[in-house]
Amino acid sequence: MALIDLVDVKKKYRLGKTNELEILKGITLSIDEGEFVAIMGPSGSGKSTLMHITGFLDHMTSGSYQFDNKDVTYLNDSELARIRNKHIGFVFQAFNLLPRTSALENVRIPMMYARNKSHAQMNATAREMLERVGLGDRIHHPPSELSGGQQQRVAIARALINDPKVIFADEPTGNLDSISSLEIMDIFKELNKAGHTILYVTHEQKIAEYAGRVIRMHDGKVLTDKNK
Amino acid sequence: MFWQTIKMAFRALSLNKVRTALTMLGIIIGITSVIILVSAGQGAQSLIIGQIQGVGSNLIFILPGGSQKGEFSPPAASQGILVTTLSNQDIKAIRNPILAPSVQYVNPEVRGQFTVVYGNHDQQVSVAGDDDTYARVHNLEFSAGDWFSKSEVDGFTQVAVLGSKVKEDLFGARDPLGQIIKIKELSFRVVGVMKPKGVGVGGVDQDSQITVPVTTAQKILLGINYYNMVQVQVKDETYMESAQDEITKILRNNHHITDPNKDDFTIRNQKDILELLGTITSALTLFLGAIAGISLVVGGIGIMNIMLVSVTERTREIGLRKAIGAQRSDILLQFLLEAVTLTVIGGLIGIGFGYLGSIIIAHIGNWSPVVPLSGVALAFGGSALFGLVFGMYPAYKAAKLDPIQALRFE
């Protein structure tokens, strides 16, 4: 059974009073547990919107969505927030770490909102996760004292901290030099080998090649969907 | 979670120290002024009431002329109407222990305005004629000499006691005791000088008046046979009502009055005056507090303004927090606690400054510093409430941000 099951998902934006912009024109897609998927496409093709809807950040206009065998098409904001917290990990292009806040505290935030661990447990888990992404010696440094690659690793640790079912990454290497990019992709590859389902958006062919499955989008539709 | 959020609020506030301090300043000034003004109001109130009570709380004042219209409407005598009904016979009757057993001392008083001359100094001075018991009843203190005696009163002696300011004006640094001054071209020997006492009952500046025996003032200076006022000291505060009843009965009998609405005299006691003054001073305190409250509101608006700026600046942070699972209520709590932390710290500093300020003002105003605990509690609770009220809108704005738009915000 697929982990993510989208059927005929459409997304329209209203522009002014009469104009509508259809950004997704009926996407049907299913992703199994343990897959490593890259979404490619030119800007405006709808790849980010698709990721947002799949990642419970945005509502679809029509269509249906089954996540982990549950219908999640009509959830309210509070339920979406809970799913994001428990089952989804996000990695962003701009890292989005809180400034002047240590790596450890940045990683701790999702656990704080989950409210299921004591203070000591949170610190221990966060420390463990930072060690796993190779930052065990920099846990007390704020983002300004970390390189881009290190910041993105903190962001990955943060995405992993609540043991999510899927990790979504929106152009995770977009702000990184080529060496750091490859390091980050190696981490994702390791995580996928360990069983994590990963979905990422990129427009670099070299980065997309890490994935086991590449979905190419164009003008709100899936153009090609190939497994390696 | 709550402590984490408070810690977060402290961090967020410490990231922009100058801004935080300036925003807090609004609340600090507001709370400080509320506390100082309320405390000054209460200090002045207790000073005034204390002064009146210092005169003695067992005093009754009999004023000539009725005052039917209302309890506190002024009696005829104080409206400039000459009423000549308080006679020597009345005094004698009130002094009679059989007719008025509750009464201890009776002090009839007359007043006039005369030219007083010493050497080549001359000036218009208010002259009061009082009894020999007056000084004792009013706990008067002397910087030189003493009050006149009963024999001096009985003998129509031309002696005078000077208020401290009159003594300064006429004699400067010289010793006035035994000197002769002229009142209405008559010679009076100075027997005493009072210590500065300030404004007494009825708005009389006791420091700039001269007191002479009531008999001398009445017969020799004024040439009248009535009194302007009678002060009665009751044996004990518990006898106040019975004393008033006895006096009323005597005066009605003496003046042949049958209809109580046609009394030609007015009886007032310290309690009435205290109540009236209490009403006035509390209204004043309230008024001052309200003015200070306005500055608090202005401070609160400053907080709202800064919180709105802060929400805009941290839009991406809010988007990120939402993306990783923060509920609306989490964001609301975060920003609300930030505003409340700001106002509560400001409030605490304000209470500190207000306390210091109250002590300084009390020192200047010469009253004992009163910082009412209820006022402090109110200021503290008020500042927390201000944080809630003025933080609510920015926090709500932050909470309902759309995560995707917030994340895209530049």
Verbal overview:
The complex is a heterodimer of chains A (228) and B (410). Chain A has 228 residues and is an alpha/beta fold. In chain A, 34% of the residues lie in helices and 29% in strands. Chain A has one domain: 3-Layer(aba) Sandwich (Rossmann fold). Chain A is built from seven helices and ten strands. Chain A has a six-stranded mixed sheet with strand order 6-7-8-3-9-10, sandwiched between helices. In chain A, strands 2-1-4-5 form a four-stranded antiparallel sheet, with helices on one face. The model of chain A has no long low-confidence stretch (mean pLDDT 93). Helices cover 55% and strands 17% of the residues of chain B. In chain B, a hairpin with a 2-residue loop joins β2 (103-118) and β3 (121-130). Chain B is elongated and about 100 Å long. Classes of the chains: A alpha/beta (228), B alpha+beta (410). Chain A binds chain B through residues 52, 57-58, 77-78, 81-82, 84-86, 90, 92, 96, 98, 100-101, 109-110, 112-115, 119, 158-159, 162, and chain B through 1, 4, 11, 15, 316-317, 319-328, 330, 403-404, 407.
List the domain count of chain A as a whole number. 1
Proportion in β-strands of chain B: 15-25%
Hey, roughly how much beta strand do the residues of chain A contain? 25-35%
**Tally the helices of chain B: what do you get?**
13
The coarse silhouette of chain A is: globular
Terminal residue distance of chain B: 29 Å
CATH superfamily of chain A: P-loop containing nucleotide triphosphate hydrolases
Radius of gyration of chain B: 33 Å
Largest interface: A-B, 26 and 20 residues
Strand order of the largest sheet of chain B: 2-3-8-5-7-6
Structural class of chain A: alpha/beta
The CATH topology of chain A is given as Rossmann fold
Domains of chain B, number: 2
User: Sheet with the most strands of chain B?
Assistant: 6 strands, mixed, barrel
> Radius of gyration of chain A from the CA trace?
18 Å
